[in-house]
Amino acid sequence: MESHSRFIQDPGSSFFLFGPRGTGKSTWLRMRFPDALWLDLLDPETARSLQARPERLIELVAGARNRGVVVIDEVQRAPELLPVVHKLIEERRGLRFVLTGSSARKLRRTGVDLLAGRATLRAMHPFMAAELGRAFDLERALAHGLVPLAVAAPSPADVLRTYAALYLREEVQAEGLVRNVGSFARFLEVVSFSHGAVVNVAAVARECAVERKIVSGYLDILEDLLLAWRVPVFARRAARATSVHPKLYLFDAGVYRAIRPTGPLDSPSEVAGAALEGLVAQHLRAWIDYGQAGDALHYWRTRSGVEVDFVVYGPRGLWALEVKHTEHVRPEHVRALRAFRQDYPEARALLLHRGRERLEIEGIACLPVAAFLRQLDPRRALDAGV
Description:
Layout: E1 15-18, H1 25-32, E2 37-40, H2 44-52, H3 56-62, E3 69-73, H4 82-91, E4 96-101, H5 105-110, E5 120-123, H6 129-132, H7 138-144, H8 148-151, H9 156-173, H10 181-191, E6 197-198, H11 201-208, H12 212-224, E7 228-231, E8 247-250, H13 253-259, H14 268-291, E9 296-301, E10 307-314, E11 317-324, H15 335-343, E12 348-353, E13 359-361, E14 364-368, H16 369-375
Parallel strand pairs: 1-4, 1-5, 2-3, 3-4, 11-12, 12-14
Antiparallel strand pairs: 6-8, 7-8, 9-10, 10-11, 13-14
């Protein structure tokens, strides 16, 4: 596969690099640190030896004194290494550790805080359209997503079909995160219908034939495994009553399409619309993370049901974005954005659509979604290319 540069930046110190499987963490690190001492905990022998005697890490580092960087891949498989890492960072000035992970669950429970701020946090996301450049294709991205593992595959559909099974086998089952893997697999299918929406926990529990508290626990596991994330409501200086529940997104549009069951009773436009909204969501999330400016992603929904898909707020500005799965924009499509700007006149509003025309309706820019995604660069303002 053609190599593509990534927007993620090396912080210049020790850092954790989190990201779902297949997002290119190891590939980027091997290119960035070709001479690093590399410890791959997906290798059973390496994992067993370090789990049994974590202080062996000291010996390995001592035997590679000419290496200034130590990469520990999938560190969540041996969280007992973190105190040793902390000790080495304290004792050996100039030595850097890069700790990757595709699950934050064990680390949260057993020791990220043990590094006491000695390592910063970074996240790796699926490709952004601007990283792919001319190779970005909107239709392909909506069908198969932008996880590098799938983008590079001759048959991305086959990779995505086995993606969820990989997590079930190597994370959920192997780590004993749930008692019944079959129930969790069923939950994954059911919760995929809530992609881009507020999860009705009670309804999901009924569909999965489990207790409500189990579904709440499953949602936490889904986030800990970095497969999903929640977007809170924007309520800053609220002029009217707003919703209180967050929306849920699976981390990649292709993974969503692979997990969501479809059949003759499913509306193709409904599935495609959710995939499009999710594709924009994952781009905005990556733009925020890679930009490291302190911006945050929200959505806005009033108690009367007026909703704006995304609100980005932070040092770089306030933006409201609405995503419409339509090629023909009409004045009524900007109704929610118009209501938001009545409450927040400082906001810049954008409507993203599937058509080819750039329009302006009531002072609101209406842009082709593909063009917007291609110009989205973490080093620039959100609407720099508008």
